[in-house]
Prior knowledge:
By secondary structure, the protein is of the alpha+beta class.
Amino acid sequence: MFVACLWDHWQKAGASDLYSFAAITDDPPPEVAATGHNRCIIPLKPQNLSAWLTPGADLAAYYALLDDRERPYYAHELAA
């Protein structure tokens, strides 16, 4: 599964470098919401991975990639 993420590298004189990373989430599908979660990662389609990783596209193009996502079914079972 390819997860849509953002990352950045911050630098400031006299301070340690800071690497940041975040997975992009959205409202969950019904089977995830039924377990009590209110957010879910956005899985990218493999054919969209190159476009996601290519800098310079306009913002609308990236939103289109997030909308054209994989739609897996998440199964679960109670542990206790």
